[in-house]
Amino acid sequence: MRARDLMVDYPTVALTDPAIDAARLLARSNLPGLIVVDDRGAPFAVLPGTQVLRLAVPVYIQDDPNLAAVIDEAAADVFLTELGERTVRDSLPPQPHELPVVDPDDTVLEVAALMARTRTPLVAVVDHGALLGAITLDRLLDRVLGA
Amino acid sequence: MRARDLMVDYPTVALTDPAIDAARLLARSNLPGLIVVDDRGAPFAVLPGTQVLRLAVPVYIQDDPNLAAVIDEAAADVFLTELGERTVRDSLPPQPHELPVVDPDDTVLEVAALMARTRTPLVAVVDHGALLGAITLDRLLDRVLGA
């Protein structure tokens, strides 16, 4: 079993898309994360769902849990709408050293090790810079465990 | 909206459960992660799905991507079955400093900030040491965005 046997079509978001639309895509489709592509359609970032949240949670609150507690309930309820007009590019968290991207010929163990190392339940399958598809953790487990 | 309004019942695994059963639960139920409870039913660990993979991917392969590439395809396909008789306790990755656990009165922003900070799309809701339920990232986004 190789990456090419596990991959499926997967929606992408562009750097110029509104960040709120990216959050809505994640929510509506119950995706484990998002693939952000550049102008040429190549993966620029692969964000686990928790890091899509970071698009919207103010940095000072991420850094200091006590500050989250002083925001009142009504304001907390609408924190995602604070994204306003910001684009995905404006809101991207600092990029990790290693992009969760695999080659179509990589084995399931290479894919699993990459997911574990990058803590990302989603990897992009890329061949010579072109995005072929994606592998989700659910899909990998289903295939490996025969679920 | 408070943690108590967002939480749902969530399956747990015990430290003494076979690790392979934990992986199967994750796969079968398409869960974003697992809550591992101790003998008294209190959360001992909250593992994002990618860290459940770490139960099975040998440590030397997690540390060195090149080593994953030298395992042949047939052996790679069955890496999860190598868990054998190991329990969840035997296989647990090193514990992070911060357990993704919230109080029933925490706001949605506090829950979101914790998910972002711990990179865990699942938090346990605990009151005086007792596990009341869990909040998944999907559930949080659906409620906040009204999806």
UniProtKB/TrEMBL annotation, chains A, B:
PROSITE patterns: CBS. InterPro entries: CBS_dom, CBS_dom_sf, Diverse_CBS-Domain. Keywords: CBS domain. Residues 94-147 form the CBS domain. SMART domains: CBS. It comes from the Bacteria. Pfam families: CBS. This is Putative transcriptional regulator. It comes from Allocatelliglobosispora scoriae.
